Predict the 3D structure of the following.
Amino acid sequence: MGYLQKKGKVILAAAGPGDADLVTVKTAKYLQDADVVLTDRLVNKEIISRYCKATVQVVEVGKQAGKEGSTPQVTINNLMAEFAEKGNLVVRLKGGDVSVFSNVLDELEVLLNRGIAYEIIPGVTAASGAAAYAGIPLTARGYASGVRLLTFNNPDLVSEEEWKTWAKTTDTLVFYMSAQTLSVLSEKLFEAGMPDYKPLAIIEQATTPAQQVKVATIGHYLNGLEKDDYVSPTLVIIGEVVTLHSRFKWFNASEVTTDFFTHVGDNSKDRKQINHAAF
């Protein structure tokens, strides 16, 4: 009787934006059975300790812009496939939602090309998590007609027509990974016709004990008046719904921002405290 090789599988699963309680039941069930977990930097470590079995192999494959020690995407792809081809149940655990501003397409291509079974499990993306914990209903009736999930890194990649559309829309604009370019973003929106009194919120490390919410207007960021220096991950919300934060904020985080998520290449358990000047 010949040996029948066990077939592996990859679960592309979402860990949510930070709060360990926001992980889905389905992701938690797969974590309980996982042989290998490949985890992003922006994943609450409590999720691993709470749900995984003692024998699980956890591999940190975090990325952080500009940081030495970030794991290249090709390395992540190869690890994921190789572990699965050895018959393991592999959970590829991503911060936020699996399909929103992630490299899931690269990973799906590899899995498909190598004939590896997979599942995609959705989760709480940063936009909905950050907005909820800041008391900002993204599509509140009378304040917004919709919501757009965007990112902004290079002004040359956005056409003039797109700037005008963003500047004049009644939709709530949510920008991922854009806090470091907030001054440029505000200036481009203002030049395209957005009024300088348009409200914006900057939410750092949403849904964690270190969450910070700063409310201002795009005019506050014109002419480089403010430093673009925020603790990652940071989300920017622009629109009239931001005015609801003062009425409906409910989540009380610490007054001092800490690095809730460890940095790439930093194995220290100590978390550096960073004071922020109030607006």
Notes: Residues 267-279 have pLDDT under 50 and may be disordered. The radius of gyration is 20 Å.
